[in-house]
Amino acid sequence: MKAIVQDRYGSADVLQFADIDRPRPRADEVVVRVHAAGIDFGVWHLMEGVPYAVRLATGLRRPRNPVLGSELAGVVEEVGKNVTAFTPGDEVFGVANGSFAEYARASASKLLHKPANLDFAEAAAVPVSATTALTGLRAARLEAGQTVLITGAGGGVGSYAVQLAHAMGAEVTGVCGTAKQDYVRSLGARHVIDYTRDDPTAGERTYDVIIDLAGSREVSALRRVLAPSGTLVILGGEGGGKWLGMGRQFWSQVIGLTTRQSFRSPVALVNQKDLATLKAMLEAGTLTPVVGSRYPLSETPDAVRALAAGHSRGKSVITIAGGARLRRSPRVTDAHDHEHHRDQQTGRVLRPILWGVVIGVIQSAAPLAIRWLEPAAVQAVCLAFIAAVYVGFAVADGRRNVIIVESAVAAAFLVLGLIGVTASVWLLVAGYVGHGAKDVWQHRTQFVAGTRWWPPFCATVDFVVAAVLAVGISS
Length: 475
Description:
Elements: E1 2-5, E2 16-19, E3 29-39, H1 41-48, H2 55-58, E4 71-79, E5 91-95, E6 103-107, E7 111-113, H3 120-124, H4 127-140, E8 147-151, H5 156-167, E9 171-176, H6 181-187, E10 191-194, E11 207-212, H7 219-224, E12 226-234, H8 247-256, E13 262-264, H9 272-284, E14 291-296, H10 300-308, E15 315-319, H11 335-369, H12 373-397, H13 402-433, H14 437-443, H15 445-450, H16 454-473
């Protein structure tokens, strides 16, 4: 099948239009023949690997899942053995693992039957962006008659936030560029501020709720136009820094300890309950998806560039003309492909075992020679246990939960390395000072004083090897 893939992090230039194997469903999954896929800023973050913290879940050096995209609408092609809610031929919308492709695998719990009054492109523009807007307004506890300021009102999430806030009976002020003013008013905004000419945080007016989607303004600036007991909701990681992406969110929580103003940063996760709520509003005409631009699958890089530049009005959508043609079986791969895949999977399982053995030898055999067995033996057992847990998940569940387990393993090894360094430094310092802490663990003062170079050396080797392991299993 055709798909948009990437083998490294970077700009839209890393995206390639390629031919790959068609996915097969697991027990609780379905394979969807994709007719349309939505583009949101989450796509850009995953493509760039920014903030860097996201790579702990997606792969440190390169993406584990090479196919980009999550939002989709299409037709169920194949179902897993435990799926009862869908059958082949059902029209669905929701999120999947890699929707920028002719076929995508999705959890049945993240899909819902498509609203009858929407086409595939319109339905694909809903799941992530509309759910994010709904989650933000719920977090703000917006009530009828309140005033709300929405930054980024002309974008994908913003277009839904304006409509939903208007439907809740709030007085909406939207912030957008010059070209999108009439568009934002048509969505239900009573007032519109053109940020290219006016600063929305410089006026005298205050708002009961601010929904910040743009991420370009400091929390202190937004507070100036927030009512004394108002609520600021920060959605998305824009403006939060390259490392964690949560700088503004964290700072707002610190400020919240000293003021009556409330600060919230909810995490929006697509689920069937919220999709059902949105579907009812879509079918009733209360909510309307706005598809600004449509791109063929091969032009996905251009669509991502337009999104990053802020040129998109509403949602941009990738369309696969009429859906992919029905194919009865996945592409047959040659022997070399199968061998490479098998070697890759074997390496993922054997790597933690081998490194676990190496670390166990370093931490146990070397201290045995100098009579410092107890802490090394305990640490070796811990390392072996963690490696065994990782292998158990990898073998029993294939790739399900592997992302969580790998991240936990990497964190555990690094923590153990830090514990080793801390303990060695403590023993070393205690050895220099002399007696204390029950004679530095029952007469080990002489050992540390006589071989003070060995504990920090062992701990340093342990930490370096653990770091190498963490990088290896997380990539």
